[in-house]
Amino acid sequence: MKTKLVSLLTLTALATSALAAPLTFDFKDPKGVNNAVFKLDAPLEAISGSANGVSGIVTFDPEKPGDTKGKITVDATTLHVPHPMMKDHLHGPMWMDVARNKEITFEAKALKNVKTTGDKTAADASGTLTIKGVAKEVTVPVTLTYLKGKLGQRVPKMEGDLLVIRAHFTIKRADYGINPGAPAEKVSDEIELTLAIAGAAPQK
């Protein structure tokens, strides 16, 4: 009888584990420190800035990190550069036209070349990047770090897990209609983008 009970409990545990749903991580950071950084490095001038209006939902299964999917959104109105006039230009119609294009989004549809070591997963994320209303299919290198039970260390009095996403890649300004006529000597056509954001999956 005891043996049967142990076997039944074991099978129940295995079935529960097999049916466990992926975790859902919310990237609207209560600390407000999630941000995207951009840089244009032309021969005559370098422009650097950031945006802190990051949100999004990503589903992640620690047992199957390659199945990760989700969407990250950046509020274009939070794009910032230190020089006030440059910021006005950045938000204006020739550049990001934030009045009509309030969001920059990346929707991840699949991960390729997935390699997991410990709590870190490196992969190439394929999906749709939409900037200034122009949507293009891109593949970007990402690193996912799953931190089980670490939410409370970032947000006091909250229990749960963290998922940290890091990415660094380059896009072409002209591909997205971002002031395509600007002289390349002064405004680089290449925009370096760096993302380092943490999402929370509170314990239920």
Structure report:
With 204 residues, the protein is mainly beta. The chain has one domain (22-202): Lipid/polyisoprenoid-binding, YceI-like (Lipocalin, Beta Barrel), CATH 2.40.128.110. The chain contains three helices and ten strands, in the order αβββββαβββαββ. Strand 2 (35-41) and strand 3 (46-51) form a beta hairpin. The longest helix is centred in the N-terminal third of the chain and has 17 residues, at 2-18.
Please compute the radius of gyration using only Cα atoms.
21 Å
Major sheet size, sense and barrel closure:
10 strands, antiparallel
Q: Largest beta sheet: what is the strand line-up?
A: 1-4-5-6-7-8-9-10-2-3
Describe the global form.
globular
Describe the structure using short key phrases.
mainly beta; 204 residues; 10 strands; 3 helices; globular; ten-stranded antiparallel β-sheet; Lipocalin
SSE topology:
Elements: H1 2-18, E1 23-26, E2 35-41, E3 46-51, E4 54-60, E5 69-75, H2 84-91, E6 103-117, E7 120-131, E8 134-147, H3 151-154, E9 160-172, E10 190-202
Antiparallel strand pairs: 1-4, 2-3, 2-10, 4-5, 5-6, 6-7, 7-8, 8-9, 9-10
Q: How would you concisely characterize the structure shown here?
A:
This protein is mainly beta and 204 residues long.
